[in-house]
Specification:
- By secondary structure, the chain is an alpha/beta fold.
- It is built from 9 helices and 15 strands.
Length: 259
């Protein structure tokens, strides 16, 4: 079994690992600072496709975490990387915010409502019936359906909000077409992240707070997996799964002395 000292590159989830409700979790700032100071290759991963890396770096800085924007990898960026490698016309109808539209543009795509090769669905707080109807008609006409992440709900100060997965399910029900979903728990997101930092699975670790996304995807990508208990998962929850993380820690503060 791989040890922490054997790890050369790190992937880590953001919410529940580094921050909770925009407050830094114990050891998170020290861990990021250690990685930066030692020029360690790492990426902070998030299924959130709304924000650009620059936006997220600024938000993390307000929480006391100085993460360079080049060390952030979102489901929107992973979707852009996926699209860039697909054959066909580089045209897409996109439902999403700046994080997604920027990533799709950088992948070399033209955004259009006229006979696009892809319909790409991401997170937004302003889903419109008109845009969803347009997506349904384009997919029915033959456009390929791609979704940034499967999360059915998202948090807000007033409670849960319907998110990308819920809207994707509605479009699937109307078109009978299932999308290709890029974000966690698809290990594709981890592989694209490793390509970004030229990492190899044998010497890369994934830190996460969820067994059903972070840990299972890390395991399927062949990574060393580290579960922290500062997010949604409790020790009792772990026993419900047929697989286990390579390490289970109370939080990333326990990891800092080992690196």
């Amino acid at each position: 079994m791989r040890k922490v000292r054997d790890i050369e590159c790190w992937l880590t989830d953001m919410d529940g690992v580094l921050v909770h409700e925009e407050q830094p979790l114990p050891g998170a700032a020290d861990l990021i600072d250690r990685w930066v100071a030692t020029s360690r290759r790492f990426l902070v991963l998030t299924n959130n496709s709304i924000f650009t890396p620059r936006d997220l770096a600024a938000r993390l800085a307000k929480s006391g975490l100085n993460v360079p924007e080049e060390n952030i990898w979102t489901s929107a960026m992973a979707t852009g990387a996926f699209l860039a490698n697909q054959p066909g016309e580089k045209t897409a109808y996109v439902i999403g915010e700046a994080g997604l539209t920027t990533a799709v543009h950088e992948a070399g795509f033209v955004m259009t409502e006229t006979d696009p090769d892809f319909v790409v669905l991401g997170e937004t707080r302003t889903y419109s019936f008109e845009a969803i109807t347009k997506a349904i008609r384009l997919i029915t006409a033959g456009a390929r359906f791609v979704v940034t992440n499967p999360d059915a709900t998202g948090p807000s100060k007033d409670g849960l909000l319907p998110a990308t997965g819920a809207v994707a399910a509605m479009i699937t029900a109307a078109t009978n077409r299932k999308p290709y979903i890029v974000g966690k728990p698809n290990p594709m997101m981890f592989r694209s992240a490793m390509n970004r930092i030229e990492a190899h699975s044998e010497t890369t670790a994934m830190i996460g707070d969820r067994m059903d996304t972070d840990i299972v995807a890390g395991m399927e990508a062949g990574l060393h997996t580290v579960l922290v208990l500062t997010g949604l998962t409790t020790p009792a929850d772990v026993s419900k799964f047929p697989f286990r993380p390579d390490q289970m820690l109370q939080g990333v503060h326990e990891l800092v002395p080992l690196i």
